[in-house]
Fold:
Amino acid sequence: MSEHHHELTQENEKKTLFVIIFTVLAMFAEIAYGYFTNSMALLADGYHMGTHALALGLTFAAYVLIRKFAGSEKFPNGTDKIGTLTAYTSSIFLGFTGVWIIIEAVQRFFNPLQIRFDEAILVAVIGLVVNVVCILIMEGKHHHHDHEHEDYNFKAAYYHILADALTSILAIGALLIGKYFNFVCLDSVIGILGGILILKWAIGLLTNTVKILIDMKD
Structure:
């Protein structure tokens, strides 16, 4: 591992830890306030944040293992593939998220539910604020033009946060239109489009990590 790549990995590990702490704090705050106000929307979003905290936890665990086994005889070819394997696993979670959003949106399109617009918009805004802060923490040098040494572990975590921010933005737009123009179906349509985009990110990440894991050349 080059000195530059080692420094970048350490930087990404620190960023991931900060994002995990912030996400977990926001998760507990939403769950606590959800119970206090009997808000199912806040509770649901709080537990949803928990799934992202789990994905981020996998990313951080990979960095710990990479550090622990750096230079170890058990890994004669280096420890980079630990992070790649974690990114591969995370991309599968991301794919399931996209599929789940699409299925949920299709079901709601044919069986629309009564939406509590004010509460739902509040939850979406809180979620967006949390994700924007996380994106600002993670932004920086996570892009690397050398695909062989690109930190897909960090990229996977970044995509999870980006996907959540995207769904929050789309939800806010759809909810505002639904509230003021009574166009409720738009919520489902935008959900389907968002799910497809997330699925596209997941497939791209999955493809890149598989190529590295099986040592496949472009």
Remarks:
- The chain has six helices and no strands.
- Residues 142 and 201 are 16 Å apart (CA to CA).
